[in-house]
Amino acid sequence: MGQQELAEWLNLHLNRRYDRNRVSRWENGSERVPQIVAQLISVSGATPGGPKGLPGAVAASPSAGGGRIATKIAVANQKGGVGKTTTTVNLAAGLAKVGQRVLMVDLDPQGNATMGSGIDKRKLELTVYDVLLEAASIAEARVRSDKCGYDVLGANRELAGAEVELVEVDRRERRLKDALSPVNADYDFILIDCPPSLSL
To answer: Pick from 99, 198, 89: which is nearest to 154 by CA?
Structure first.
């Protein structure tokens, strides 16, 4: 694939305005390859219809390699009804659509992000509640949303009791961080839909 063809392919998939000059600068090393570009190429290069014969500097970009720790984004606001869940679900779906590996963590007992991802919160055997209480790992509790193309660590009303149960527990504020560590390499992005409160 030539530089102009690559630019057009990237613009189609990322809704950007790259041109062959920009690709040339990536290739000769005078400009760093954007992370989103390197990740898309990494994922799509082995996919039918993906770019072939990529410029060496792009294909070899460190951003496209393994060993990367997932980018974590928490969507938070203490006020309800401001679009936290909508933002989280749509961002997860958009990232998944361009080939990113996404885990969406629902931290709201209402479970709207779970339901919005096509997962019935009433039928979940394990949830983020079990993960926070260390009764299950994320690898055990996550479920795949085939409808949206990403993994979901769901929530339901059981989560409302977690704060009370964790009040006497040491390092309770680090439970989620510690639970995410083993799956960091499994994802490009981990999105966290926070509840409308300032609670633990």
So the answer is: 89
Long-range CB contact pairs, 19-24, < 8 A, 24+:
23/55, 23/58
Task: Write the CB contacts of 174 (distance below 8 Å, at least 6 apart in sequence).
Answer: none
Give first-to-last CA distance, the chain, whole Å: 51
Distance of alpha carbon 150 from alpha carbon 43, whole angstroms: 15
Cα–Cα distance, 65 to 100 (Å, whole number) = 13
* pTM (2 d.p.): 0.65
> Using an 8 Å Cβ cutoff, are 153 and 141 in contact?
yes
The whole-angstrom separation of Cα 82 and Cα 75 is: 11
DSSP strand pairing (143-145 vs 71-75): unpaired
DSSP state of 95: H
Q: Digits of tens for pLDDT over the chain (200 positions)? A: 688 888 888 888 777 788 888 888 878 877 778 877 877 777 665 343 445 444 444 443 444 444 567 899 999 888 888 889 999 999 999 999 998 999 999 999 899 999 999 999 999 999 999 998 888 999 999 999 998 999 999 999 888 777 777 777 777 788 889 999 999 888 999 999 998 876 65
